[in-house]
Amino acid sequence: MSKERSAMLGGMDVKKLLIKLAIPATVAMMANALYNLVDTIFVARGAGEIAIGALAIVFPIQMIVMAIGLMIGMGSASVFSRAYGRGDQESMTRVVNTALLLNIVISVLITIISLIFVDELLIFFGATVGENFDYAKEYIVLILIGLVPFSSAIVLNNLTRAEGRANVAMISLLIGALVNIALDPIFIFDWGFGLGVQGAALATLIAKSMSFIYVFREAISKRSALNIKLKTIHKFDFKMTREIAAIGAPTFVRNTLGAVLVIIINNLINYYAALSGVSPGIYISIYGVINRMIMFLLLPGFGLVQGLIPIVGFNFGAKFHRRLYEVIAYGVKLIFIYFVAIFVITLIFAEALFVLFSRDGDMFFIKEGAQAFRIISVGFTMIGFQVVLSSVYQAMGYPVRAFLVALSRQFILFIPLVFFLTWFMQRYYDNGIAGIWLTFLVADLLAGTLSLFIYRYEMRDLKRKIPEADLRAMKA
Description:
Layout: H1 2-11, H2 14-47, H3 49-86, H4 89-116, H5 118-125, H6 133-145, H7 147-162, H8 166-188, H9 197-219, H10 238-276, H11 280-317, H12 321-355, H13 363-377, H14 380-396, H15 399-429, H16 432-464, H17 468-475
């Protein structure tokens, strides 16, 4: 079976191969994004618009855990893919063992520390006592309890994709999403257990655990090339840990900075809403909905990237430069088309989307939310270049380059821009919160344009490595 997958990654037509691997990853991403979306809708319908803010407050801790899982998962997947391409069975086994143990240790530490300082964390994340604090605390405690299975499933999903078993990762995420969607109304609404926000967290905990159980069972089966042996799973390779962390660092930074940005934005909303005499809770709920909608609409595009990574890693390790060039070029074309289509959809349907999250038809919530979402969506047209470039660098084992690409939007550009534009909009237009939405637009357009220039340079360099005979065949 592993030889068949090796032949597939190194010999199948790259366009068909990318679609073959991307479809399961995209379906899984859509299912996962749908769960987040439906989860938020149920919370809004069951507890009101302000309760959505609790999900936005807790979101940073979920993003940090996801950042750790993706760092270890994508870092180990890159090492695994290149070892797979070389046929190095020993390295394949060592990287899987090391990734799993590293993830468990980090997740347990985060759980313990976060539970001890949970009140302080929520205030730091931007929770407002009397508005969304109690909702947020009910939600975060149960989420923290489930960190180990949540992050472990992320690691194993990346590794199963690296061995060419994208269907396993897809089914794992589908199980989590469908179980969550099924349990949400039972736990949230009064006709069921009537637990409200706490019910949403409990549904998530059960669903993520079931997702992990499935993918772990598949990973230890004889069908898998991961070669997990429970008797030797305790063996830990410190040298390989450094390589995993170095390669996964851009993903960790990108997602952790995403969490930092959520914290900054929540606190900026609190500050500028107070200046305008408006409840900050409603704006934090608007931002929470936008976050969920962005995940739902854009994550399928990231599914395409998930399909691209094992192909790039394998063919880079095998030095198949023509295949590498063709699959990257095709991937960029597809993701650009997809993100532009999402931009158009957002412009047309932004208001209708916000209606879904309003229990009482709050027109302020709907109108303000739709306007903010339309402004943010303009940046969707360019972010595809950054997403592909960072992921390709990771798959090739170039962590520093991937790190710099990841930093360009969320640190180098976004943080100074958000402080400047909120100040500017408050001073001259008495609307500091509008500066937050403008920052998304400006940062995405600038980072995307920069990534486009770097991408074109890298593709010219890669093309020079393609043998002359292959170049002639490409032109024919």
